[in-house]
Design goal:
It is a single chain. The protein is α/β, with parallel strands linked by helices and 329 residues long. The chain has a single domain, classed as Aldolase class I (TIM Barrel, Alpha-Beta Barrel). An eight-stranded parallel β-barrel has the order 1-4-5-6-7-8-9-10, surrounded by seven helices. Helix 3 runs parallel beside helix 4 and helix 4 packs parallel to helix 5. It is globular. Bound molecules: ligand PBG and zinc ion (ZN). The site of ligand PBG has 14 residues, from helix 6 and helix 9.
């Protein structure tokens, strides 16, 4: 019989492996970490298997286990003890960066989240204006630049602003350069949407926005899911201001954005498989409605297929085991 046979190439594992366009590798993954000031014992994060709010004592041991598991890239979220209105203290997170660096040298590549939502009394990503009605862009950007400089000074390889203020990348780049940190990279949450898939993170980081009117949620600073063109404008602007790596977040609901932007903006693209996305996969598996390993690998394959060079995932520390098992079986 003539005609196109698609099934001939699917007959054997060998042919399927040869035909594959996407191959996952552990060195493409970044593992998020939470460290909480004053916490006595580490606490599991509800909805995310194997993810903890670490204590300053437990953090390094977890990173060492991750290195043993073949993951050497991390995104650190520091959670200070005392929430404030302004005049934030970036010393706790900077201290954690320094401690990891002292213990591990350059064995771990360390990106540090730059935002204020884990620091503020109201859980918003920035400082409020005098009337306490809006997040003040200028005051927030100035504070973010201070945070970035503190983390770079403590030894971060990369800073990752997740706040979505206007002009933050340029301000952070200028502050890093002025501090002699030309080698420190910026990974911008450029295409970060106002999403419902951030739930478990907000409990883990103590970063739930509280307020009314413009402060009811993060809609005044994060991208509207129905305005994908803002993601392009944001990404082009952040690249022009000096972002080294650009990010789409969340992942699965925004594969169209990832595919289009990664194809047209020639920067490394990361995708953030957010806490809500991860929890959804784990709930499916727990209810017996799907296989955890397959669900995980399929989503990661989709990210790479859509054009991501790097994947931030709460399950990164299981990546090597999952990839090896799939290849072997
Ligand atoms: C806040 C921040 C969020 C995430 C990273 N930094 C969520 C938010 O905007 O509330 C998302 C992480 C996740 O859900 O995994 N600046
Ligand atoms: Zn924030």
């Amino acid at each position: 019989m003539g005609g196109l046979s698609l099934r001939r190439l699917r007959r054997s594992p060998a042919l399927r492996a040869l035909a594959r366009e996407v191959t996952l590798a552990p060195d493409k993954f970044i593992q998020p970490l939470f460290v909480v000031e004053g916490l006595r014992e580490r606490e599991p994060v509800n909805g995310l298997a194997g993810v903890y709010r670490e204590t300053p004592e437990s953090l390094a041991a977890q990173v060492e286990r991750d290195l043993d598991a073949g993951i050497d890239k991390f995104l650190l979220f520091g959670v200070p003890r005392t929430p404030r209105e302004r005049d934030f203290d970036h010393g706790f997170t900077a201290g954690q960066v320094g401690a990891l660096r002292a213990r591990l040298g350059r064995a771990a590549w360390l990106a540090v989240d730059v935002c204020l939502c884990a620091h503020t009394v109201h859980g918003h990503c920035g400082v409020l204006d005098e009337a306490r009605e809006h997040v003040d862009n200028g005051a927030t950007v100035a504070e973010l630049a201070l945070a970035a400089r503190a983390y770079a000074g403590a030894g971060a390889d990369c800073v990752a602003p997740s706040d979505m203020m206007d002009g933050r990348i340029g301000a952070i780049r200028a502050a890093l350069d002025a501090g002699g940190h030309e080698a420190v990279a910026i990974m911008s949450y450029a295409a970060k949407f106002h999403s419902g898939f951030y739930g478990p993170f907000r409990t883990a980081a103590g970063a739930t926005p509280r307020g009314s009117g413009a402060l009811a949620d993060r809609a005044t600073y994060q991208i509207d899911p129905a305005r994908a063109r803002d993601a392009r404008l944001s990404a082009e602007r952040d690249a022009a201001e000096g972002a080294d790596i650009l990010m789409v977040k969340p992942g699965l609901p925004y594969l169209d954005v990832l595919k289009e932007l990664a194809a047209s903006i020639p920067r490394p693209w990361a995708v953030y498989q957010t806490s809500g996305e991860q929890a959804a996969l784990e709930l499916l598996a727990r209810e017996g409605l799907g296989d955890a390993a397959r669900l995980q690998l399929e989503t990661w394959t989709a990210f790479q297929r859509a054009g991501a060079q790097a994947i931030i995932s709460y399950a990164a520390r299981r990546a090597r085991a999952l990839i090896d098992r799939a290849a072997g079986g």
